[in-house]
TrEMBL record:
One Gene Ontology MF term: RNA binding
Highest taxon above the source species: Bacteria
UniProt keyword Hydrolase present: yes
Protein known as: Guanyl-specific ribonuclease Sa
Native source organism of the sequence: Niveibacterium umoris
UniProt cross-references to Pfam families, sorted A to Z: Ribonuclease (PF00545)
Length: 119
């Protein structure tokens, strides 16, 4: 094996490890102002602040962040809440994810993308 190939392989491995580490700490997220959320999401935020009662049985369950689209937190830190979608018969795709350390996130596409909710 040529020495140059080995050097490229080492650099590629280091970049891959760095990419995994940075993905666990700070994925790129957009922001959304609370006032720009759908009215149902603002109502869900009020319910979260009050501690319920929540309209869906699964509201408040642990969100596992399996895809790593939110900043890394210990298991159990994230909780998910349904944002009702007018016209939907089930829970729909919209959620608010609440973090144990404060930030809240909105997804309108069932976890494919998130926006950090700003006051």
């Amino acid at each position: 094996m040529a020495p140059g190939f080995f050097k490229v392989l080492v650099v590629a491995a280091a970049l891959a490890v760095a990419g995994v580490a940075s993905a666990r700490t700070a994925p790129a997220l957009g922001d959304i102002q609370q006032a720009d959320l759908p009215p149902e999401a603002r109502q869900t935020l009020k319910l979260i602040e009050r501690g319920g009662p929540f309209p869906y049985r699964r509201d408040g369950i642990v969100f596992q962040n399996r895809e790593g689209r939110l900043p890394y937190r210990d298991r159990g830190c994230y909780r998910e809440y349904t944002v009702p979608t007018p016209g939907e018969r089930d829970r729909g795709a919209r959620r608010i994810i609440s973090s144990c350390d404060g930030p809240r996130y909105y997804t309108g596409d069932h976890y494919r993308s998130f926006q950090r909710i700003r006051p």
